[in-house]
Amino acid sequence: MNTIIIDDEKRARVTLQLLLKEYCPNITIVADCENLPEGIKAIRKHKPTIVFLDIEMPGHSGLELLDFFDENEIDFSIIFTTAYNQYAIQAFKFSAIDYLLKPINPTQLVEAIKRLEKNIQKIENLQALKENILKENITKIAVPSGSSLIFIDTTKISYIKGEGAYSEVFCNNGTKHLVSRNLKNFEDILCVDNRFLRVHKSYIVNLEQVVSFNKSDGGSLTLEDKNQIPVSPEKSQILLEKIKIIKR
Q1: Residue pair 185/191 in contact by the 8 Å Cβ criterion
Q2: Do strands 77-82 and 98-101 pair parallel, antiparallel, or not at all (unpaired)?
Q3: Are residues 55 and 82 in contact, defined by beta-carbon separation less than 8 angstroms?
Q4: Which UniProt keywords apply (predicted)?
């Protein structure tokens, strides 16, 4: 598989080249570029299978890559190399985009290559990542749905119900969205916010929508939209502490 490395730090490019040569002999490095414009030219010229892309670069962020290609031109997979904070990492997970934290671990590099060999990266996943990672506050999330993106105002989310590999997002205006992400993905990106809590193996709730908590029969929540949400016994105390914070 042909690959291109785009990173403004020469040491990072050299290190990744050495790791690929030692641990991924099936990878051929066809170009390494120190900025996004050079990388775009190299992608158009070499038609790589994989692009290793740094995000924080002078002039252009790696997230701007999509701005230079039409959807039908994205026939390569991207592995982001990043030193981003924990919130941004949750955005990567939620968008189903692979990433490697610097300094790059050889085992994680090999695993990322194996995952790409099995999975086809979708353009809407990249778009969702760009939308989510640029937001300092979790006021909206961009979720892939079919061949499009749905933008959901998190303040309007009432609860999320997990159904295997899919989740249903229920909003307080009566709308709901079926999203091809499991509940753990939503937990990772939303539950860093005190407003949201996974109260059950199948449910995440916006605590601002809670009207009452019934401790009988294992525990349940009543929401403003009258829906009843079950609460796992081990989540009861955490729930009460979270509600105190939200209601202050």
Answers
A1: no
A2: parallel
A3: yes
A4: Coiled coil, Phosphoprotein
Alpha-carbon dihedral 65, 70, 76, 78, rounded to 10 degrees: 30
CB within 8 Å of 239: residues ≥ 6 apart: 197, 199, 207, 213, 221, 231
Residue 67 exposure: Cα atoms within 13 Å on the Cβ side: 9
User: How are beta strands 220-223 and 210-214 bridged, if at all?
Assistant: antiparallel
Instruction: Identify which has the larger pLDDT, 107 or 74.
Output: 107
The C-alpha angle with vertex 86 and arms to 8 and 37, in degrees rounded to 5, equals 25
Residue 167, SS3 per DSSP: strand
Going by C-alpha positions, the residue among 21, 141, 46, 39 that lies closest to residue 80 is: 39
Residue 117 has pLDDT above 80, yes or no: no
The confidence band for 23, taking pLDDT boundaries of 50, 70 and 90, is: very high
- Asked whether the beta carbons of 156 and 172 are under 8 A apart, the reply is yes
Q: Are strands 28-33 and 2-6 parallel, antiparallel or unpaired?
A: parallel
Question: Can you identify the CATH homologous superfamily of domain 2-133?
Answer: Response regulator (3.40.50.2300)
- Which CATH code for domain 140-247? 2.40.50.1020
Give me the sheet containing 98-101, strands edge to edge. Answer: 28-33, 2-6, 50-54, 77-82, 98-101
> Nearest 5°: phi and psi at 93?
-60, -45
Half-sphere exposure of 138 (CA within 13 A, CB side): 22
Tens-digit pLDDT profile for residues 139-190: 778 777 766 677 888 889 999 999 998 899 999 988 998 888 889 989 888 8
